[in-house]
């Protein structure tokens, strides 16, 4: 982590009264939450509830109607955050005509990372043996992994990951979660969106969104104890059922999760 990480105190991400409209429609309604440095926060909720919009707001690529988002003590999107905040979008943003290795080397050069870090980032996502293949010739899951390697190689203080494990096999998913834990142990702050409730157990804290509103921010253990449910999927359902009209949204979320498996 860069030495300048000492400049800020908790929280690493501070969101207050965030309201966002997209295409004229309200998408986030006064969301407030704080993310501690050195933790993994899971952002969970049904499709369309506003997860990506919230992540874009943290990165500073989303036009915000009102409220504030501060990252490492600076407004989201501030110039000084560029090298300190990594963002892996749902759709991999890589160069199809470059090899896997060149894609990662390019992002390493932008970030001023050592060339030796390129191989390490490729190994971390299990793509070492594909390094000379054109990115355009990879599967969807492999392209996602190249995108992830491009973010990892820059070694950012804050890593924002939009569904990073979609389409990955269980072994690779487990390895990536181990890697995420090591990054958090080293003081990096990770925010990871997911449809998959069983991934929630990897997180220190969960942010549950529904219809653009914050349902709860709590640990997996607290989610279990407040709902009396052991399976996080059931706990999420129980929590959503406490909200009028919540059951349908919760059932949709579970259906999507099952379809994604
Ligand atoms: N470019 C856009 N213009 C208008 N509306 C948009 C745009 N992008 C997203 N939306 C709407 O904003 C809402 C929130 O979308 P968002 O992508 O943040 O949800 P999400 O929770 O990340 O969904 P998913 O899990 O399916 O990726 C949705 O109702 C979506 O239709």
TrEMBL record:
Alphabetized Pfam families for the sequence: ABC_tran
PROSITE patterns: ABC_TRANSPORTER_1 (PS00211), ABC_TRANSPORTER_2 (PS50893)
SUPFAM superfamilies: P-loop containing nucleoside triphosphate hydrolases
Entry keywords, A to Z: ATP-binding, Nucleotide-binding
Keyword ATP-binding on entry: yes
Matches recorded under SMART domains: AAA (SM00382)
One of the record's GO molecular function terms: ATP binding
Gene3D superfamilies: P-loop containing nucleotide triphosphate hydrolases
Domain (ABC transporter): residue spans on this chain: 13-236
Protein name (record): ABC transporter ATP-binding protein
Source species of the chain: Tomitella cavernea
